[in-house]
Amino acid sequence: MEKRPAAGVGMGVGSIGAAALSVGASFSYNKKSYYYGKTPDNVVKLDKKHFIEVMSAMMADKPETVERIKSKKLRLGDMDDLLYFYKYGIMPPAQAPDPFSGSNN
């Protein structure tokens, strides 16, 4: 996995033991990259090879979400849908609200 120093916005989505992790996004030429780590200054790029392991651990408090990750119903390219499902427990409608907006409606 590629380590990168990063500054930016992250969203806390779960914890592993006592160490909380966050996931954030980076955009480059219409391609999204996601990073995770304990702090914004120490992050690792999330890749396909480690996606199931990392996201299952971060979202372990929501077994239905973990099942969709492990069964590959939700993949790295489905991050918006994954975060929506994690937050609301359902798949997003065609025009889903932004999962980063802070609203629960």
Task: List segments where confidence is low: pLDDT < 50 over at least 5 consecutive residues.
Answer: 3-19
The run of helices and strands is: EEEEEHHH
What's the arrangement of strands in the largest beta sheet?
Answer: 1-5-4-3-2
Rg over alpha carbons: 13 Å
**Overall geometric form:** globular
Structure overview:
The chain contains 3 helices and 5 strands. 28% of the residues lie in helices and 31% in strands. With 105 residues, it is of the alpha+beta class. It has a 5-stranded antiparallel sheet, with helices on one face. The radius of gyration is 13 Å and the shape is globular. It has helices spanning 48-58, 63-70, 79-88, and strands at 3-4, 10-16, 19-28, 31-39, 42-46. The model is unreliable at 3-19 (pLDDT under 50). The protein has one domain.
Quick summary of this structure?
The protein is an alpha+beta fold and 105 residues long.
Question: What labels describe this entry?
Answer:
single chain, 105 residues, alpha+beta, five-stranded antiparallel beta sheet, 5 strands, 28% helix, 31% strand, globular, disordered N terminus
Write the layout of secondary structure elements.
Elements (H helix, E strand, L loop, with lengths): L2 E2 L5 E7 L2 E10 L2 E9 L2 E5 L1 H11 L4 H8 L8 H10 L17
Antiparallel strand pairs: 1-5, 2-3, 3-4, 4-5
